[in-house]
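Pasting as-is:
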Amino acid sequence: MSQSKDLVLPANGWKPRPYQMRAWRYLANGGKRAVTRWHRRAGKDDLFLHHTCCAMHERKGNYWYLLPQFNQARKSMWDAIDGKTGQKRMDNVFPRQLIERKLDDEMKIVMKNGSTFQLMGSDNFDALVGSPPVGLVFSEYAISNPSSWGYLRPILLENGGWAAFNSTPRGANHFKDMCTMAQERQVLLPNGDASPEGWLMDVVTAKDSGVFTEAQLQDELSELQQLNGEEYGHALWLQEYFVDFDAAVPGAIFADAVARMKAEGRIAPVAHTPGIPVHAGWDLGMTDDTAIWWFQVIKGEVRFLHTLSTNNKDISWYCDKLKTVGESRGFEYGIQILPHDARPRTLAAGGKSMLQQFNEWNNDHKGVLGKFAIAKRLDKQEQIQAARATLHKSRIDSDNCEDGIAALNQYHREWDDDLKVFKNSPVHDWSSHLVDALCCIAVAWRDKQVTEAKYDGPPSPEALMRGSIGSQTFGALREAHLRKARGKRESLKMGG
């Protein structure tokens, strides 16, 4: 609790509910890593918003509150009205007499003591600029981009800041892993509280909190099943009110395949095999993530070795990253499999296609990334089926592909609330990019260019000059005069 001359925080008479006190005491006593697995409507954000306001007046600094997606922050937080008070949610938490100014476009509050609070999205975490935070809250972490914490964690380690994660489950994904780690690192005091010397892991179900009566919970189950079908409705009920990790993400596409792989021991540490080329499959983003899977093909089995997903970088950055990973892990590159739209699309570089940029960088670096190829175009359902078939013949390195595994578990179909059925189209979220990169591999890895690839060292300058990326595709157009004709057409389109 913080106090000014005429004002006591938390503001507006807010007090933690009895079942929230364990988490509140941990944070108030200086705890640095809190994980709350609480049911829907348990007041997760209320607690963490009020704690953040108090913390801002105990330590001057920048405090970030991350929603799963940036566009959710304004609707659910910044512009939201509290149904009980009729005031804006932010006004309930941050007293006006303590505020220097509000920046509506940035969803930012500057306090008179110099601390700042800002709403953000975990989907664009690495685009953030300015002074680093000393306090972070990840709201609904189960559906947030898990890379965001990996990116921001070193900042808090350096400045001694704190981080909190609140969520209800969404299947056995990265939030479950976070809960497991928090449980292992929790240090219990004699009264059952979590010591500030360790992590906090706090679980609250609807039965624990007493927010809802038994009759209300049964009515909610009945209504959810009536609206969404028996199976989907029950899964939603278990997830939302009983924080059940075993209730699979409704509409999950690959969760069963991942579960089978784990049961069969095919998601475990996977060693790189020297002397066999390492390939990479890409999903190229313009305004969102670019994702990459590194893999080898050994005796008809795909072995996934590494993943990367990030955004707001240019082609040369990704090429440099690929080179760095290759050098650090001893990879000898074979084929870089690009999605079908890499040829016409551009990503900065004055209108040059992504394909041209990759080719130029690779030529300048003596072909260190191997060859580039374009995967054939299939519709989304064909890609999904190809990916399922590929996972049946795959191993995934659990140490270096954590984000990829989480994405496969999260990837799910969109629910049609009018028809009460799942649509064929998957939901586009943070998991889409890593899954799309794997789909790119799935439609191409059996091609002879990949399965018969051999590493013979970097190509000579003469070979690089003779070749063109157009000759390194998986489609037709293999004859030289057709390649040249296509090159001329592309040049005309780009004004060359």
